[in-house]
Amino acid sequence: xxxxxxxxxxxxxxxxxxxxxxxxxxxxxxxxxxxxxxxxxxxxxxxxxxxxxxxxxxxxxxxxxxxxxxxxxxxxxxxxxxxxxxxxxxxxxxxxxxxxxxxxxxxxxxxxxxxxxxxxxxxxxxxxxxxxxxxxxxxxxxxxxxxxxxxxxxxxxxxxxxxxxxxxxxxxxxxxxxxxxxxxxxxxxxxxxxxxxxxxxxxxxxxxxxxxxxxxxxxxxxxxxxxxxxxxxxxxxxxxxxxxxxxxxxxxxxxxxxxxxxxxxxxxxxxxxxxxxxxxxxxxxxxxxxxxxxxxxxxxxxxxxxxxxxxxxxxxxxxxxxxxxxxxxxxxxxxxxxxxxxxxxxxxxxxxxxxxxxxxxxxxxxxxxxxxxxxxxxxxxxxxxxxxxxxxxxxxxxxxxxxxxxxxxxxxxxxxxxxxxxxxxxxxxxxxxxxxxxxxxxxxxxxxxxxxxxxxxxxxxxxxxxxxxxxxxxxxxxxxxxxxxxxxxxxxxxxxxxx
Length: 499
Known about the structure:
Globin-like; two-stranded parallel sheet; 12 helices; 2 strands
């Protein structure tokens, strides 16, 4: 309100309550009395305030209340001086605005005026009341009290009017703020609605404008930050899904190839197991044959030893025959001839035994020949005599041959011993080989079982990988519905505050 408007409002109030110059003069005449009475009236008033919880809380302490009392004394001093000017209006306006600011309701203010005015009126009446015969003085007192009451009412009017104006200003300010807030809220909600609508369509590029009203800028920042994070997440998910799809595709091909190779491996292991089982049977048979061969060699060794003993006996017999032949040669030529033939036949028998390996047959033949020769010797004693000398020489040769045969047979026995050792080693190795082959066969069968299980697992893995690939493809198809570039776009351009 301008100074001119303030003066007009003041004049209107003064004119309406008829607080003219005469009334002001009467008011000034009471100023000393008012000043004298005011201290007690204010003491009673502030004492009442201190005992009233509803208003005592407006004062922080006694000093605060004392300061307010001092201001009241100054104000009443100006009021009783009749100086109703701009400074008075400013002062009473400040008081009214203070009451409005702290929330002091008019009922307490009016009550305070009632307390102060009652003390002032009572005091003035006691001091200024005229005598029984001074009617003119009573009229003057009435005029003075009227002036005091009008001044008090004017002061109350201004204070309450300012209080109400302050409340009205506050109400208008709150209304304007509410209207502005509603407009800002409507604007922000419209942008938010558009943003959510775009988001519901899968548009992750849309953001809220940064120039929304102040109360909603943080909301816009939070929304944009959330959308940006969501967009980055979708972009990352899309990229990652692409990588997963590539990996799933490679994995699918690899598992398919692995399944094929595993199946081939399973078939190969199964064939190897069957072949190894056959080999195990063959090795077992070989081991058995080696055992038989070892037994045959041992039998041959025994027979060779027996033949060696026979040869030794033959050598001894040859020596005896040689000696007998010598003796017989001395006695009778015929006996010598028979001995020579006998030695020759014995030599043939030894040769036959060495060649055949079956001494029985050879000696049977030789024995037959010896018997025949003995018969012929008996028949031809004379002929034998002539042959004894030759027989002696041949016996010597036979002894040498039989000795050589004994040595050869001994060497053969030694070699048979070596062969027997070799055959025994072969038999033992064949047994070990059969045991090892059986163990390998068991391991191969176990491997075949595991390989078959692995083949089944690989088949299931391949199927799961294909399902994973299909799932990732579906996920990527869903992600394609969302638009998400690196930079977002605002859903409503620049925000416009509602008029």
